[in-house]
């Protein structure tokens, strides 16, 4: 009798566990964005969360947890239960670049998260104040070589994505540039527009409105091919700088040890959403090219991206305490 009861108990528990898994999600999901509301990452997250909520049949609540270059938001997801109800809408900034430049990284991006999907790639471009006497990348390099240290570049801050891109550009082209760090993109662009600094690498969505208005001039895109947002803008390779390709990225991740079934459920929902032409077009208008990779592919991509930024940080000597 006791054996029979034990068997029934085990069967009941297994059935309950299976039912719980198939019922996912059964309550609202929180999607953490590690940056302030209103920015490019936040906007993309809200667009995608709205559509995924329909696909999953549960609300998705955006929670902005900004600070420390994205580390605060990312770390909060690591501490969450691995049950699929707390996700990170992450970027290469806090998941690839930040761990590469920190002397004591706050987390291991490859071990502390379960990758779900790379949502998209983000175009960067090189722009200059109109006062700069260069209309092409080649002319800029020639001027910088003839005038060492006279070209100033703006970054989002020490150890930021475009700080490392700029250092890589200096190394690749053998030029000496002067770094002027700011607290974020908005402040950097403000001084670029006024001529306080001369050049900057920033996202296409930020720079192109000023380029179209004649307030800045774009010299090249850092994407492997020309961007649809500015088809006349040459790539770095077309500008004579081979092998200089950088793109930001957006992706969806869960805490490590999140069950594979839940990761797959989220991936399928996201992949379905990203196939919608209207959403893809909206993201493209914001400088995001849809990728929609599977979890394993996203993990491989992240590993390669982390290695790339670690090497740039090492060779440039950029390190932040």
Please describe what this structure looks like.
- It is a single chain.
- With 321 residues, the protein is α/β, with parallel strands linked by helices.
- The protein folds into two domains: 165 residues, D-Maltodextrin-Binding Protein, domain 2, CATH 3.40.190.150; 98 residues, Periplasmic binding protein-like II (D-Maltodextrin-Binding Protein, domain 2, 3-Layer(aba) Sandwich).
- Helices cover 45% and strands 19% of the residues.
- The protein has eleven helices and ten strands.
- Strands 1, 2, 3, 4, 5, 6, 7, 8, 9 and 10 form a ten-stranded mixed sheet that branches.
- Strand 5, helix 6 and strand 6 form a beta-alpha-beta unit.
- Helix 2 crosses helix 9.
- About 5% of the residues have low confidence.
Secondary-structure element order, as H and E?
A: HEHEHEHEHEHEHEHEEHHEH
How many E strands? 10
- Do you know the CATH architecture of the largest domain? 3-Layer(aba) Sandwich
Largest sheet: 10 strands, mixed
CATH class of the largest domain: Alpha Beta
**How many DSSP helices?**
11
- Uncertain residue ranges: 6-11, 13-21
The whole-angstrom Rg is: 22 Å
Q: How would you classify the quaternary structure? A: single chain
CATH topology description of the largest domain? D-Maltodextrin-Binding Protein, domain 2
Write down the overall geometry: globular
Strand content: 15-25%
Secondary-structure-based class equals alpha/beta
As for the number of domains, it is: 2
CATH homolog superfamily of the largest domain: Bordetella uptake gene, domain 1
Helicity, as a percent range:
40-55%
Distance between the termini: 65 Å
Estimate the mean pLDDT confidence: 92
């Amino acid at each position: 009798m006791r054996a029979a009861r034990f068997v029934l108990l085990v069967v009941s528990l297994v059935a309950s566990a299976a039912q719980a898994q198939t019922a996912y999600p059964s309550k609202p999901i929180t999607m953490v964005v590690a940056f302030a509301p209103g920015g490019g990452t936040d906007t993309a997250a809200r667009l995608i969360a709205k559509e995924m909520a329909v696909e999953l049949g549960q609300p998705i609540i955006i929670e902005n947890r900004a600070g420390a270059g994205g580390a605060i938001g990312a770390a909060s997801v690591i501490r969450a239960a691995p049950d699929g109800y707390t996700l990170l809408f992450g970027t290469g900034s806090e998941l690839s670049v930040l761990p590469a430049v920190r002397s004591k990284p706050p987390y291991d991006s490859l071990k502390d998260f379960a990758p779900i999907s790379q949502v998209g790639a983000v175009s960067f471009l090189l722009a200059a104040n109109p006062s700069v006497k260069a209309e092409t990348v080649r002319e800029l390099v020639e001027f910088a070589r003839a005038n060492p240290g006279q070209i100033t570049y703006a970054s989002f801050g020490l150890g930021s994505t475009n700080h490392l891109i700029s250092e890589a550009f200096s190394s690749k082209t053998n030029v000496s540039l002067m770094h002027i760090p700011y607290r974020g993109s908005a402040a950097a662009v403000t001084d670029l527009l006024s001529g306080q600094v001369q050049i900057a690498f920033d996202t296409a969505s930020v720079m192109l409105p000023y380029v179209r208005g004649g307030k800045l001039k774009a010299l090249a895109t850092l994407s492997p091919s020309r961007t649809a947002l500015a088809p006349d803008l040459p790539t770095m390779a077309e500008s004579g700088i081979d092998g200089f390709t950088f793109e930001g990225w957006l992706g969806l991740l869960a805490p490590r040890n999140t069950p594979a079934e839940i990761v797959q459920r989220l991936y399928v929902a996201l992949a379905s959403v990203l196939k919608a032409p209207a959403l893809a077009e909206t993201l493209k208008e914001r400088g995001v090219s849809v990728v929609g990779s599977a979890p394993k592919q996203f993990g491989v991509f992240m590993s390669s991206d982390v290695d790339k930024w670690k090497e740039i940080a090492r060779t440039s000597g950029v390190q932040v305490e």
